[in-house]
Structures are given as C-alpha cells and as structure tokens.
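note to self: dont lose this again. the chain is below, predicted strucutre after it. 278 aa total, dont forget to put it in the shared folder this time
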Amino acid sequence: MLEHIYPKMLNNLSFIKEHESQNLVVNLNAIRIIEKNLRQGESIIFKYYLRPTDLGIKDIRYILRADGYLQEDVVTIKVLERGEKFSIDYSCDSKSLTRLKEKKFVYNIEYLGGNDETNSFPVNITPPDGCRIARASWDSNKPEFNNTTWQSIGNVSFSKGKAEKLSITANFSETGLRKSPPWISIGSYNKEFETDLAVYEDYDEPAIVHYEFISLILTMIAVLISLIVAIFSIVEIHYTRKEIKLTLIQMKQSDALIVSNTSTIEKLTRIINKLLGD
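---
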C-alpha cells in the first residue's frame, strides 16, 4: 500500500484513463493504491495538482508509506500571481499639440509584481493612427529601441516597487480632438491611454498658446463693462433720488401755498360777509 498525505490540497481529482487506474481510494487527505504488486524495475508515477489560495512562500509536507517503506519531507514552493502587472501613466507639458510639431511624453512605469521581484520583459511602443515616433529612451541604463519597430533591443529589467521613466518624442500628422499618446506594452501587459490630446494646425497655435491670456483679457473687459454699468446705475439712482427730493419740496411748497391761499380766501369771505351785513 502506498499513501500520499498533504494538508488541504486534494480536491476533485479525476482519473480519465481507466486502463491505468490502480484501484485508487481517496480518504480525506490521503490517496491509497491498494493491492498493487510491483515487479523489479517497475515504478508508479503519481501526479496531482495544487491550487493555492494565497500568495507567498509555502511549505508542502508529504508522507509516502508502503509496506516496509516510509518517506516524509517538506518541499518549499513560491506562489506568484499569474502574469506581470504594471502601473503606467504619462505626462506632457500641454495636451494641446501642433500638427507635425514634436512633443515629448514622459512615462512613469512601476512594476507591481506578478512574477519574481526582479524580472526582464520585452517592451514595445505602438504609435496610434496618425502618430510618428521620433525618439525613445530610458532615464536609466536600459536597452535601446529599434527605431523602425520601436521594440526594445533585448529584454528590459524591472524591480518590484521601483519606478522607471521612459521618454518618447512623437508628432501627429492629423488634426483633431481626442487623440491618444503612444501605447506601451511590457511582456503580456498592454496599456492604452485616455484620448485626451488635441492636435491643431500651426496657424491656430498663437491662439492656443495665448488662450489663457486672451481669456484673462476678455474676463477683465467683462468685469470693466459690469463696473461701468454699475457706476451708471449708481449715478442714475443718485439723480433719481434728487429729483424725488425736489419734487417733494415742490409739493410741500404747493401745499403751503394752498393753505395760505385758503386762509386768505376765508378772510376775504368774512370781510365781504361783514360788509354785506352792514
């Protein structure tokens, strides 16, 4: 009898070749081969699959037992993520580009793991439609690029957690909005970027370059016009108040004149009545 024991690693084994089945019995974490007599020179090949649930260094303990035979050992394995992973972003001094004028893009690339702590991968630069790459270089000492295919001449080494900078100079032959910078692929990892670039003709460049200044001037003009309107409104309100005050004075004077005239008429009326009575 041969027995193989390991903790919590055995699950849903299937044996699809019936003629090779050796009367296997699965019991908890052990697999037993019963009533198998080996001749001299014969051997048993036993294959199984592990499916780890987390990453890191793991110790696999196994025990082999047979009549008169015992072997026990620990095998250390390293569980890694499947496929390499990177964080890649880029920057440039302006998202507004001039057609056929070269623009420098700086890519910040950080290896996040998924393989060994340090590993090497081929790097490819892919220009989008209407884009031509002029130059590409690393800030550190790394393999150069083929200036036709823009693939790295040899694999590029990356260390987990260490950022690398790649500078790419390119120009665009077509105008338009929502353009993308060159794409980057490292090993099996591909990165495409948001289409947030705008490409203009060269005669539009002065307006583009001075856009903020022009916007500031227009804002100042708008504020000045608003201020002038406010001043005229204040002056108009002032004169309106003066006219109202003058009108009130005239009304008071008219009221006083009416009162005075009324008093005079009453006196004349009494005098006339007195004369008529006499």
